[in-house]
Amino acid sequence: MAFLALQDVTIGYQQHTPIVDGLNLAIDEGELVSFLGPSGCGKTTTLRGIAGFVHLMRGSLTIAGSNYTTTPANKRNIGVVFQSYALFPHLSVFENVAFGLRLRRVNNTELRRRVAEALDMVGLSGFETRLPGQLSGGQQQRVAMARAVVIEPQLLLLDEPLSNLDAKLRIELRVQLRRVQKRLGVTSVYVTHDQEEALALSDRIVVMNAGSIEQLGTPEHVYQQPETLFVAQFMGFANQFAGTVVDVSDGIAYVDTPQGRGHTRASRGVCAGAEVVVAFRPTAAELVTAPADVPDSTLTIPGQILLRTFQGEDVNYLVKTPLGEFDVSVASNRTPLTEHADVMVCLAKERCIAYVH
């Protein structure tokens, strides 16, 4: 039996206007599952429904075998970490973390022990007397994490908790957050629009689109085998061109394009005669300048470099081709190419996927 189960759940803020419609999801005990998707796709609304902040219009919610569908938010043993930290500015770090324990009338000795453990877990021992205004953004978010876990929740919900932090701090805190979650073994739901964050943190990822689940799977599966064009685009398949499928065999689609016939991986539903979009990541293409250097590839497309952008370990080239403009990312230690240079974009079949248009 799943630890957290959502069955045929519909959620909305206005009657007859659902944002999430007919969602079904089962999460195992101890799992960290991320809801990933663009703004407005329903991921935060789903989290708010689990927390009890928004009533379900239809469906049921169970946690550890108990029905929580109509249970008020304050009666659910759930820890929540918000994007905005939501700390009490007039209370010390200690009192912010202790707040939920005081509401539960935990005795003072036990309260002090649990607060000390929670602060140690997030690396804030010694900060007990400081006010939130005396802390950095990263430290404030650690206080929010400690406050959420100190109550020993059945379930931990995290709503884009790192989005207000700079890139370096986000990486540091996501590692610490995952360590805390693993140490506690608490079942967790994490909301983010950041693909890299979801891949790094999750046991499984739920990709959402327009209030529905577009794909559910492990980070490796979602990254390597996006099942729809929407998921592919969201997982970095930024380049696309159109074609017509002439044959499909053993999961490989043979696609006719104005630049010749190529073969790519075939997604679900691709069949002979289908109009498709072939998608690939910027890192999936090779750029060569001489015909002799063309590798054994699915398709070679002539082009011209419009723009060169140095990005540290990589150099990004914007290449104009008869099939459209493509972003191609090449290791910066390779021989640099100049703007306006003529090149050939070479695509290997295992790194492209065809989707029904």
Mean pLDDT: 93
For this structure, what is the CATH class of the largest domain?
Alpha Beta
Give helix and strand order, one letter per element, not per position: EEEHEEEHHHEHEHEEHHEEEEEEEEEE
What is the beta-strand fraction? 35-45%
Shape: globular
Tell me the span between the first and last alpha carbons: 38 Å
Query: Any idea what the radius of gyration is?
Result: 25 Å
Report the helical percentage: 10-25%
The number of strands is: 20
Structural class: alpha+beta
Strand order of the largest sheet: 6-7-8-3-9-10
Give the total of domains.
2
CATH hierarchy: architecture of the largest domain? 3-Layer(aba) Sandwich
Main beta sheet: 6 strands, mixed
Task: Give the low-confidence spans.
Answer: none
How would you summarize this macromolecular structure in one to three sentences?
The chain is of the alpha+beta class. The chain folds into 2 domains: 4-230, Rossmann fold (3-Layer(aba) Sandwich), CATH 3.40.50.300; 237-356, Beta Barrel (OB fold (Dihydrolipoamide Acetyltransferase, E2P)), CATH 2.40.50.140.
